[in-house]
Amino acid sequence: MARKSKKPINMTALLQTTTGTLAHIQSKTNSLTILADIVRQICPDLPVDAWHIANCRQDTLIIEVKSPVWGQRLQFERNNICNALASDTDGNFHKIEIKVNPQGFRQQRHEITEKIRTELMQSAPAITADSNTVVNKKTAEQFLDIAKNAPKGLKEKLEKLARVAGKR
Q: Which of 67, 69, 65, 71 lies closest to 53 in space, CA to CA?
């Protein structure tokens, strides 16, 4: 049996020689990055978090924006972007489709609110363990009060939640 070489495999060489899914993903990612650079050069005043290249299909580049205002700004520069894309990509892209998708940027807003929440928690006075148990006991009592008038299945679940809240 032949010994295996302990020399590490160069990942870039592996990706370049492969014709599978990973190589396709890498080439598409690289091309989307190049296309984003072209748009960024034409519209340098657009904030980075206001738009992104969503996809490219056949001869169409799809740009997602988070509000109609930024979509309108890109509409003003549509002809310039199309001309630059046609010249830089050897005529592969002729059209631009601009879509407003505020939900696509939801994750970024969630990260911002989490950052603000942690800053507030750091600036707020620390909560002691005693006050924490008082809150949990009050929550358990509220669950039990609600469970009194609840149907059988819901009542069991509320009582279980009250037990869990009471233990903390």
A: 65
Whether residue 146 has pLDDT greater than 80: yes
The C-alpha R_g of the chain, in whole angstroms, comes to: 28
pLDDT for position 126 = 46
- Domain with 32, as residue range(s), is 15-106
The domain that contains 54 carries what CATH number? Answer: 3.30.300.180
pTM of the model as a whole: 0.52
Count of domains in the chain?
A: 2
**Residues 32 and 82 grouped into a single domain:** yes
Token digits of residue 99: 């879509």
Choose between 16 and 159: higher pLDDT: 159
pLDDT reading at 16 higher than 70: no
Same domain assignment for residues 27 and 85 = yes
